[in-house]
Amino acid sequence: MFKNYLKVAARYLLKHKGYTAINILGLAVGIASCILIMLFVKSEWSYDRFHSKADRIYRVWLQENYGPDEIFTNIATPLPLGPRLKSEIPDVNESCRVLLLPANVKTTNQTSDNENINMVDSSFFEMFDFQLSKGNLNIPFPTSSSTILTKALAKKYFGNANPVGQNLEVQLGEEMVTFTVSGIVDHVPEESSIRFDMLISFDNAHYLYGPRQMQAWQQVYTETYVLLKNATTDEAFAPKFDGMVKQISGDEYKAGQYNLHLQPIADIHLNPSLPVGNFPTSSPLYSYVLACIGILILLIACINFITLSIGGSTTRALEVGVRKVLGAERKQLMQQFWMEAFLFTITSVIVGLLISVLLLNPFNNLFQKHLSFTLDPVVLLFFFGIIIFITLVAGVYPSLVISAFNPTEVFKGKSKGAGSMGFFRRSLIAGQFVASISMIICTLVISRQLNYLQKKDLGYKKDHVVIVPTNQDSDKGYQIAALYQNELTKIPQVKSVSTSLCSFSEPGWIELGFSGDDEKYRKIRMNAVDENFLPAMDIALIDGRNFQKDNSADRTGGAIVNEAFVHQFGLVDPIGKKLPGRFKGQVIGVVKDFNFESLHTKIEPMVLTMQWDSMLRYTEDVMFSSSTEPRVSVRMTGGDLNDNILLLQNAWKKIVPNQNFDYHFLDESLAAQYREDQRVSKIILVASALAIFIACMGLFGLATLVVNRRTKEIGIRKILGAGYASIISLVSKDFVVIVIIAAVIAFPLAFYAMDKWLQNFEYRTVISWWIFLLAAIVALVVTLLTVGFHAIRVAISNPVKSLRTE
Fold first, then answer.
1. Cβ 485 vs Cβ 476: under 8 Å
2. For residue 224, what are the β-bridge partners?
3. How far are the Cα atoms of 58, 722, 786 from residue 774, in angstroms, in the given order?
4. Alpha carbon distances (Å) from 555 to 404, 502, 588, 592
């Protein structure tokens, strides 16, 4: 019985090749789009779940609570926290500190800057499932001078030679430390919140931190992970933390002021409520949006199948009538149509899978991912679910409608099901365009916001600025920067140059926590700059004066603050006023607020000093978002980009010939802060185009149905004198009404979604009325072009032939 139904279905699909091809192509494109988007979403939700002990691994984070408006959260934690947790809390099986160290690496043949190095405890491989192809997992670091490389980095430095036992040097602080390769990691999975090219032991922390820092609980530097004996919750574990904090701090903190918390490792990547740690996180909102887009495209493709199938029913009305007269039961007809839907779906899934495989590499390149197909049980279940879902959803309505035709009405030509554009099919087309118009609006709003971010006045000029890190800590870095600045003054193409501890390309400047004059705990941002910083970056000074190079008072106690600082601390006539709290400096200038962080956040109170440690000695808490390596910001006059970089490189080689020249462009670094938003924008743009394409295929089929049904009517109207415009209007007006109704429904839905998304930005564009109008116009134009093809064809046809049509 099954074979008979399959044969009949196959014969029908082959007989109607054009109809079948359109149907298969539309559904296959929908399936391929859904597969690629779901691979993306699956990757986002799979982060850190490859660790076999993921259910017991937690990251420890710190929250200091000094009142309703004084709650401060840090992902970085004190250096002594990890060992103390393991020794004092029995529920902690292991602890591991992970400290990100972009540092110089040197071998006999090669030197590279800013390799991605993580300093970790020896328990690293016991807690996390990073596999070694060479080395001993039980003793990953035989000595403190052992290092583990990824396979890619090993090939970079040692080629095809066996890297184990080879030596390389790493810049730690002001020293080049020799390390011996003791192991090789195959690769770091794409879905990992801990990423590295090289691992070294935490026994080397003394190169970076003094004895006091290694035991300080007020300063935070490293991420800390724990492996618990049993899975738990943050609330259940809190009392154990409280007891340890009380024992360590004594009366330094009041109850509830210094709080440690647990975050499951699988929660890290999609939890933007906590500050970003070593590597960027993602918003779960994007995953939800993309998942909905994938499902919408698949549903649109299913709707097309329904409309095209009903459109094809015009030619099957007589077939159904004859078969019923010859004794066929409705059940048999329904089974036949279900089998056609199943065969059609299987074919479409295969074609869709092939399309998705072909488009996987372009998809990865476009959206900067490394997705791949793996036929694991989850993927197979996904495909099985798609086949069942589409067969049921896409086959149910055609089988019910077509099999219900009355033979008598069919032979009299009264079967409305065969050709009418009823309410249900109007609703389906409207649903397609609600989704399509909504995605067009979202694409326009997101593009406008990203364009706004690129063009907004940040309070400084970002163009033609090259950031050159010294890649040396403190004193040595400033020495190199001073020599380099002097050399750059000899180059005519260099307009201005400045040295600062942090540049605008870093995600955040130094954060200082202290008690203000009102005894309230405060936090401000700080950067150490020279006298050239304000003019070089074109930052407006609105009160007071700039730093003076030879003024010792400026170097030891002068401070330039922003408007946000003046407002927060209520400074009236701020020039000459002492800085709040224990700080000894005084305000010598006030600058107009400028965005030294991403436009996702508001401008915070900020202080500029000339000496980076002049304020640190008086602060209670310090958080470094980037390494304390001076950066040189060079503003060029313009000209050829490659020639300018060559000039900067040659000047660098004169100063430090044994150290690689490292640089990046300020505008590119700023753009990278919005890479996730840009990636989602691209996906929604492509999805919108696909949705419109698939919807047009449905319109094409439905227009064919309407035109075929009204062929005689159109012929009579032409004989009676109707013009081309009247005929085209007759055919198109129903579709135009459907699109207008869809637009009215889509407008509030899209506005709500985009209003929520824009709330992620402290500085944002407005959602203008013309965006909705443009989206509706695009949908109308596409509709008129699609339907107009049939309308024009009928309008110019011979009415005599139309009247002869049976």
1. no
2. 60, 97
3. 48, 32, 18
4. 90, 17, 12, 22
Q: Which two three-digit tokens encode residue 54? A: 């993921």
Give the C-alpha separation, 664 to 132, whole Å.
Answer: 33
* Helix (H) / strand (E) containing 167: strand 167-172
Length of the chain counted residue by residue: 806
Largest CA-CA distance found in the chain, in angstroms, rounded: 107
Check if the beta carbon of residue 772 is closer than 8 Å to that of residue 460. Answer: no
Give the residue among 229, 144, 757, 197 at the shortest CA–CA distance from 441: 757
Task: Classify residue 667 as exposed, middle or buried by CB count within 10 Å of its CB (0-12, 13-18, 19+).
Answer: middle
Quick check: helix, strand or coil at residue 796? coil
The token duo for 157 is 């430095």
Cα-trace Rg, the chain: 34
Neighbours of 177 (CB within 10 A): 17
DSSP, collapsed to helix, strand or coil, labels residue 182 as strand
pLDDT tens for each residue of 313-326: 555 666 666 666 66
Q: What is the pLDDT of residues 521-580, one digit of tens each?
A: 788 889 889 899 999 888 999 998 999 888 888 888 888 999 999 998 888 888 988 888
Q: How far is CA 705 from CA 46, 549, 722, in A?
A: 45, 82, 21
Q: Which residues of 766-779 are buried (b: 16+ CB within 10 A; e: fewer)?
A: ebeeebbeebbebb
For residues 199 and 123, give the distance between their C-alpha atoms in angstroms, rounded to a whole number: 12
Tell me how far apart the alpha carbons of residues 751 and 767 are, in angstroms, rounded to a whole number: 8
pLDDT tens, residue by residue, 629-664: 888 999 988 777 788 888 888 888 888 887 778 888
Q: Distances from the Cα of 656 to the Cαs of 20, 290, 392, 487, 662, in angstroms? A: 69, 49, 70, 12, 12
* C-alpha span between 372 and 350 (Å, rounded): 17
- What are the φ/ψ torsions at residue 389 (nearest 5 degrees)? -60, -50
CA distances from 439 to 31, 458, 682, 694 (A): 18, 30, 12, 14
Mention every residue, 6+ apart, whose C-beta is less than 8 A from residue 609: 526, 527, 528, 529, 558, 559, 560, 585, 615
